[in-house]
Amino acid sequence: MKRRWLTGRILSSLGVLAAVLVLNFLLFRIMPGDPVSTIIDPNFSPEAKAHLRALYGLDKPLVQQFFIYIRQMLTFRFGLSFLSGKPVWDELLSRLPGTLALMASSMVFSSVLGIWLGVKAALNRGKFIERLVLRAGAITASFPGFFVQLVLLMLFAREFPLFPLRGSVSVPPPDGGLTLTLDYVWHLALPVFSLTLMGFGGWALYVRNLMVRALGEDFVLMARARGLSESRVVYGHAFRTILPPILTILLMSVPGLVSGAVITESVFSLHGVGTFLLEAVSGHDYPAAGAAFYLLALMTVVSNFFADLVYGMVDPRVRIEGENR
Amino acid sequence: MRQAKRLLPFACLLLCAVLAASAACAAARFDLQKVYGPRIERLCMVIITNPDAQVLAAENGDLDIISDITRPSDIDRLSSDPKLSMSLARGFHAFFLLLNNKTAPWNDKNLRKAAALAIDRNNIVRTIFSGYCEPINSWLPPVSPWAMADSAKNIYDPAEARALLKKAGYTWNLAGMLVRPNGQPLPKMKLLAPLASVAPTTAELAEQTADSLRAVGFPVDVDPLDFSAMIAKLDRKDYSLAVLAWSMGRNPDSLYSFYHSAMDVAGGYNMTGTRDKKLDAALLRLRYARDRQAAQKASAECQKLLADLVPSVPIYSRFSVSVISKRWKNVLTTDKTTADNMWTLIMAEPRDGKKRRLNMVLADEPRSLNPFAASSAYSWQVLGMIYESLLGTDPFTLEDMPALAASWSVRTAGAGSGEHTELVFKIRRGLKWNDGSPLTADDVKATIEFLKKNSVPRFFDSVKSVRSVSANGDVLTVRMDGVSYWYLDNIGGLPCFPSKVLAKISDWQNWNPLDKSARYGPSGLVGCGPFMVEEYRPGEYVMMKKNPFYRMLSNPRPGSAAK
Amino acid sequence: MSSFLKRKSVIAFIVICLAAIFAPLLLPGEPSRVVGAPFARPLWWNLRLPANEEFYCDERGLAFDWDKLPPSVFTLTGRVTADPEETVEVVWVTPKNEFTLATLSGQSEYWLNLDARDMLFKQKLGLPLIGSGASRLFPSQGSYQLRLDGVDSANLELSLPGGRTGLLGTDQRGRDVFTLLMYGIRTSLIVGISATVIACVLGLAFGLAAGYIGGLTDALIMRAVDVLLSIPTLPILMVLAGIWGKGLWQLVFILSIFSWMGTARSVRSLVLTVRESPWVEGLKALGAKRSYILWRHLVPETAPIMLANLALGVPGAILSEAGLAFLGLSDPRLISWGRMLHEAQSFGAFTEGAWWLLLPPGLGIVILCLIFLDMGRWLEEKIDPRLGGGGDD
Predict the structure, then answer these.
(1) CA-nearest residue of chain A to B229?
(2) Same domain, B181 and B305
(3) Closest CA–CA distance from residue A62 to any residue of chain B (Å)
(4) Whole-angstrom distance, CA of residue C87 vs CA of residue C85
(5) Cβ separation of B48 and A32 shorter than 8 Å?
(6) Which positions ≥6 away from C3 have C-beta within 8 Å?
(7) Does residue B338 share a domain with residue B435?
(8) Which residues of chain A fall short of a pLDDT of 50?
(9) pTM
(10) Which of A71, A103, B517, C21 has the fewest Cβ atoms within 10 angstroms?
(11) Which chain B residue lies closest to A187 (C-alpha atoms)?
């Protein structure tokens, strides 16, 4: 039973991946223009352009380009970027650590803070703390992101020069493991702070609702009637119930870890995957954009799969229902 | 007689005064060949993508040079900072209104002229750029030594435009829109404009241009498009009007690509569809001019014809404004180049005498430092400091000046149909690469042959007409196919690479010169320019250091006994 | 219902809607009209700066006192007639020195168009080329004169836009920010609401189909959801915008394509639970058709969730539009708050310290989002009374 469900999910994940691959290829080819046509430079004659197209492999028939693309994706050999001439893998790898550090820490901080505040709010119904959490959460979730970040940059990097204006490290970076790590942390402080500020609100509101519903369930009433301590009831029973949706959402935001935050990167001049993607798309850089999209799709499909698995493990109802089809 | 005797000492005084004055002027324009430098040990190109952060960094003192500031509010703000000095010069940027010469109504020369007269360039310059650009009426940038004298004239004259339209038989209806001689009103026309992500001002420029045209009676509406989509439409000649900005070159031979009928093909740059026999002939004479005089004559002729034909309408050219911190002295600014030029970098010294690093801004990630594959302006901002060419550019006149070549000549050899241009360069003696090995004419020969053999796209057009190259001692002779004065700049502008490095490159496309493992080619950017790369940290900075073997370091140091 | 209408957020919403409809009719000018100097402060801020001044003069010239800081722009336009033999001189007299603005001869009629921003003007007067020309023409407080020598008749306008204009100042082009703000409400509301409505309708349709019909339809729809979730939104939006072009409705359509997945999932799970319930079984036993069950029973069941999702989804759409506009991907001809912020940022409002350009649209977005979040919360509480009691505004 379980094996059939598992194989079913794996097959459908592969199907989704295949659909995404084809869609990505078509989407780029439909977009008007190609990487060579937008070069307007009298020192670049049509002859030179034709030559460049041949180098990029753009003069081959579309079907042949498609098969080259599929082979590249499946073997993870993404070739050279059109815009820079560098291997796409190298460029992605140089950007991943910074992006991961930024997004992972923001996600951890905003989710932990949000969950904690949400639980606190749910436990203190009608009191000031709940109102404060709800209002603060709503307000911060409504900020336009770049606005907050630019204000923070001006305030804390210029008016009160406490934080750096740009980048992930000082120029030049300090020697020594500890000072270097501290330098990185100092540079990440403002971006992570801004992302956390804008992210915790959504978590807090969502978890508060979940927790309130969970605390109103019959089994909680039963547990209280049995005389269990309040903390056992809350953390042992109610919180455990709401873990599955929380974990699902955490897993679903894993692809977001890698695609980065384009706006944050542009405001703080960070070297990230988000700007890489944006430049690749606007510059018709097919190898780079194709590779980035493919990796993101892979991560999404894998994390969806694990999310379903986790939900299935924790909530038996889902599995049984799935089998009744 | 006695009067003459009294006048004589006075005349002598006058003569001395004049001589002294001219000597003073000559001293102001010093001898570039005797410059000593670079005088700094380290130069750091800091990557800051956020323009606000760039301005803040300059005010903080974290950044010493910002090149090309575009926002007028930044220019005004930085100009009031006592620690910074600003410089302004004409640039190579130009903004054009393209007209589709193949369809009505723009196939009529009078209407094109009327459109050119109708555009209120002053208003555009004042409102959008706060005055930091100039109206132009030239198809070459006014700063180029080849541009005509009246290239920066504002020809705005709506009354004259209306007179021209009347002469062409047009009338106006009650709404103020034009009516053709046959009684039909002009159909609505679309003005294509690229979207704001590249240049924020383009949308407004398009609107103002359309407003000016509507004021004279042309029924024009703005249609913003994705840039690639717009270029595709221009290529197919599927448009009526379009606005486009680009950076032009110094040499007028680029006019051939834009206005010759042979370039009116898919993928060609003749987006206006110009097909004029007289202009074609003049452009061919320009393109294949055999020497400087012929080139000058043809260039003047082409520009005159263009001014009469008006295939496209030049609107304005942006000034280049840059900022440099007052902590540095020996900054070179001329009326043709701003402070952020190579000479400043070579001569700059800290005013207080304390050794420090010069910080310059790189507005975006260079991504690749492979000189064969890299095409972005930011890569070449870095690579341009590492590699030198045979010819350099004089910052005072923008003409060619000796760099690696001490002297050169252009001559036409052969006869009849076998006529071809021969370039002869005399390479300086005692030149060295930044690893200490000697630079000879053989290296330049190897460079040209490498670029031609591998059909490197970036240099394809420059070397495609090379027939043969020979190096004899320090004399390099390049024989070309066909005759053209512009071959001099094509070959003279090539960056030069060491032959021993070129021989070891197995795959120029995949080569990463900063890769220590030296796959596909040797590790290291070996050039002969004033600086070399010390460290490239992607996304953060490119740290450059002084090239200890740079040729100008063998000039006498200023202040030391010399003369 | 009356308790709904009494909530502050609903009142604010009604006020904003009224402003969106009526303000464009009541405001004096077009949003694209230039009313003052670039980056002018609001009239009530920093009274040392001058407001807009305009002087008209004839051949007798002008004389006036100036007791504030220099204006931002100096423009002298108009017509002058004189004898062609005479040399006309237009002289600007300041407490410190004199500037000859123009020297003309040889014609009987001249049209002046002098502006202190022009490079030629600055060169002629010997002013530094970089920096404000107008501020050098007003070196100090005192009396100023415009003298016309050798002139028969003149009809000139001296326009001195100052550093203060309007209720909320001006933007980088000199357009009134308050007008732009009012016109921008419309766009933000229309985009936010319609994108969410379409997304909800799509989500409802797909969720119902997937949940009720089941089988292959369900599998296909859920896989489509997965595919759409696997594509990073921002680059796709760029691609689609490139293909379909810019415009209000293209933006709405694009935003809604990427927002229906969440609603579809929750509708589907609701339908799954309800489908097996006894009363639906009963309806089927009575012979009810599938469409009847769907329309008359299942849709009303999902209605509360839909409304709540609607209200909660609008802030997301508004913020997405702002984000897209910020990256320059929206229609430049459309006035929206996101676009105002984008233009403010790309033209240097942050370094100028032009808070009047940044705070109003930014706060406007925040307030709109809060209003919808509050309305959504009220709806959620109505559906699930356990959630209530957390404070009401």
Answers:
(1) A32
(2) yes
(3) 19
(4) 7
(5) no
(6) none
(7) no
(8) 320-325
(9) 0.88
(10) B517
(11) B540
